[in-house]
Amino acid sequence: MKTARITTFSIALSAATAGAFTLSVDPAPLTQIFDNFNDGVDTSTNFNNMSSAGEAGGFASVNMNAGAADPQLQFPTPGAPFNSTSHPYFRVNTRGTVGSPSQVFPLPAAGPTVVGYSTTTAFAESQLAFANVAPGVSGTGLRIDPRGGGTAAVERFDYDYVMLDRVRTIGLGEFDYDGALDGWTFNAGIINNVTSGSTFSALTASNDPVLQRGGLSADTNIYDTLEIRIALDPLSTSRMEIFWGTNTFPGPAGGQSVSLVNELIRDGNFHTYRINMADEAAWDGNLNLLRLDPLADGDAAAGRSFEIDYVRLLEGSAIIPEPSGALLSMLGGFLFFARRRR
Ligand SMILES: [Ca+2]
Ligand SMILES: [Ca+2]
Ligand SMILES: [Ca+2]
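Above are the sequence and the calcium ion SMILES. Below is the predicted complex in structure-token form.
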């Protein structure tokens, strides 16, 4: 069920929370799924020295022939075509039997549009930008060269998703292939977890369920916005709290979090919470840890279901709107706007 778009601006009411943040609930999407390889229908084509190895479990697989020169393949667009003006950024989640330099060429070819990235042996997301594409150029497919060429043995490459973004974006968790954890760990307060169909679903089982993602290095001067798409148990009543750590403000730490309570829509359907952190003093330096407590306290201990579609970091300064006068008056006394740091 799609709900009407509402936007609220608030400070966290939790006594443990200092500072201010800006929240948009169910804002217009900034990301378009180019292909998530989740329907089990292999649409790869135009192979050169490569062949399909099928699409299953939420990703597409291709094999590069032994001795291959200039291996390449194309993913056509089962969905909407790309437009480099509306969506100048894109992300590829991939892995290979060897870590190697890879390239993407937007199709149809429109000048020197190569973008290089690095395939690793575990699934990892590369954040890319269409390079040297004339403004307004659009395309209908991507050619991928998984490796520059020349290898002794057959090598396999897997593709989990290609997503097109309006602003610079990092997928901290897309949960887009079966069993994917995308680097997240969790404590015993989270049980019965299943990743399937691009979501991580689970039950809370203690008063302090914790999901955590470490191993990050994201410049908070660029990435100042969190976006979480989550469905919450209609029986739930407690807060969702997000802790973070940076190189200058290590975490998780008490008082270094934001929490949502009344802003949460608990109807069992997915809702998007876009949280701009620019006014949080400790959102500073390089983000290296994010912790998500989906629910808390006795509510969580009672065993509530939740399902996460994704957790993303966004270049928020480009897209967080200043509040309108009408909105200001509508929200009246709930408003607080901290001085922006920059
Ligand atoms: Ca497919
Ligand atoms: Ca996928
Ligand atoms: Ca997802």
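Residues 36-38, 58-59, 160-161, 176-177 surround calcium ion (ligand 2) (CB under 6 Å).
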